[in-house]
Design goal:
heterodimer, A: mainly alpha, two-stranded antiparallel ribbon, B: alpha+beta, four-stranded antiparallel sheet, 4 helices
Chain lengths: 288, 163
């Protein structure tokens, strides 16, 4: 059980993942989930708070409120991206993002592309200290669990998308006209081309559905099969962006949790490199 | 045993039983809530809401509806209201999510005029708003014809005083 839930991984992987995720969060709130800023100007009679906001007694967003929140969010994300104060900055960032995203979804439109990212923000503070310069032998099970949770979040997004399709669209979903629906509402020159090929959108619907149902395999396979699976989903996201301008970038960023991110750090930056230190660090305090 | 030179810190040791136990519990809890959300939950439970984008069925012989809002302005022009974050601050899908409310109470369209005035003071004010849907009819999954349906109209009470 320990090896599946919390296999020790190099802490350097968490350090890189934190930098990637927290820097992306800033891009996300400014460029992608940026409705909350605009919602500050929308009269409150169109505000339909989701459960999270009601439970936490968060107020209807106003012009000033969303701007202060954005400041807190960006500063905490920048600090967390450096790896400093991983718990304090990480928790503040999580709370700010929950406020931001719940605002985003309190006007009667929910997206599910943020689930894995929010989950990543919830687990990264638990992974303890991690630095870009940590050597290969500095490993941690707490870090391993955080990485595993982000992976689980990604798979939840794919698998539960397929489950929802069966729930709302029925078993005939893939034989329906959902892609034609999306292409007609958000068309580009490319969608017109795809629609002109007989049977193509029908086939694409089946490919997407089967891939989503098979996504738990990402948690089981390794090596080339894993790379192939990741490449498939990355291509899928690229295609949805090129066709209907929907990119699911927050989910794509979380796909990086499947990668050996520690290899991105140049050897010269790593303490003790190039010759790997043979002696493992003493294992004393059990992490909480 | 000495700490290797060049090391600024040490990795944590193996997780204690308690530390591992709460992590396993959290994992199962999160997965359980997420599954519950998609199997029988609804949107207000976000982040544990159904992963339902593009999940509904579209009948090959059915219809595709695109909602839009058109407005007359104080400048005497008629414009398509930009239902985006950068436009009036409310997206098309958000208007569609509250469509029954707009239809039952067209006065809600006033809020769109207010949001436009707040976000773009330089724009001519909206004087009259028309909520419409472009309906595309499908035959065998292909669009064969389109027409427009009228959902709601609203005349802004005091266009110059919008804020």
């Amino acid at each position: 059980m320990r090896t599946w839930f919390a296999a020790a991984v190099p802490t350097r992987r968490i350090a890189v993942l934190r930098t990637v995720v927290y820097l992306f969060v800033i891009v996300d709130v400014l460029r992608i989930g940026n409705d909350p800023l605009a919602h500050g100007d929308v009269p409150a009679d169109l505000y339909r708070p989701i459960l999270l906001r009601s439970v936490l007694h968060l107020p209807a967003p106003t012009h000033g409120y969303v701007r202060v929140l954005l400041g807190v969010l960006v500063v905490s994300a920048l600090v967390a991206a450096t790896g400093r104060l991983p718990r304090l900055a990480g928790w503040v960032c999580l709370l700010a993002v929950l406020d931001w995203m719940s605002n985003n979804y309190s006007y009667s439109k929910i997206d599910h592309d943020q689930f894995a990212l929010v989950l990543a923000l919830a687990v990264l503070p638990t992974a303890g200290p991690a630095r870009w310069r940590d050597g290969d032998d500095v490993r941690s099970e707490a870090a391993g669990w955080a990485v595993r949770m982000v992976q689980v979040g990604v798979v939840c997004c794919y698998l539960l998308s397929a489950v929802s399709k069966m729930r709302f669209g029925g078993w005939g979903w893939a034989n329906g006209a959902i892609f034609t629906w999306a292409f007609t509402r958000r068309g580009t020159a490319l969608t017109d081309l795809l629609l002109s090929v007989p049977g193509l959108v029908h086939l694409m619907q089946w490919v997407v559905l089967v891939a989503e149902f098979c996504s738990p395999l990402l948690l089981a396979v390794r090596g080339r099969l894993l790379w192939a699976g990741l490449a498939f989903f990355a291509t899928f996201h690229l295609m949805t962006y090129l066709t209907i301008r929907i990119h699911f970038l927050p989910l794509v960023v979380c796909l990086t949790a499947f990668l050996p991110l520690e290899r991105l750090v140049p050897r010269r930056l790593i303490a003790g490199a190039p010759t790997a230190r043979r002696q493992a660090a003493p294992a004393q305090a059990a992490a909480s | 045993m000495s700490v290797p030179t060049g090391s600024t810190r040490t990795a944590s040791g193996p997780l204690s039983r308690a530390a591992l136990a709460w992590r396993v519990a959290v994992t199962l809890g999160v997965v359980g809530l997420a599954v519950n959300g998609s199997v029988r939950g609804n949107d207000v439970q976000w982040p544990f809401a159904p992963m339902s984008q593009f999940a509904f069925g579209v009948d090959l012989e059915g219809q595709i509806r695109s909602t839009y809002v058109e407005a007359d302005t104080t400048a005497g022009t008629t414009v398509r209201v930009p239902l985006t974050a950068g436009g009036v601050g409310l997206g098309r899908a958000e208007v569609e999510g509250q469509l029954p409310r707009f239809v039952a109470d067209p006065a809600l369209l006033e809020s769109i005029a207010v949001a436009a005035a707040r976000r773009h003071p330089e724009w001519p004010r909206y004087t009259r708003l028309r909520l419409r849907q472009e309906v595309s009819d499908l035959r065998g999954g292909e669009v064969v014809s389109t027409h427009t349906e009228r959902l709601a109209d609203w005349t802004v009470l005091d266009p110059a005083g919008l804020r």
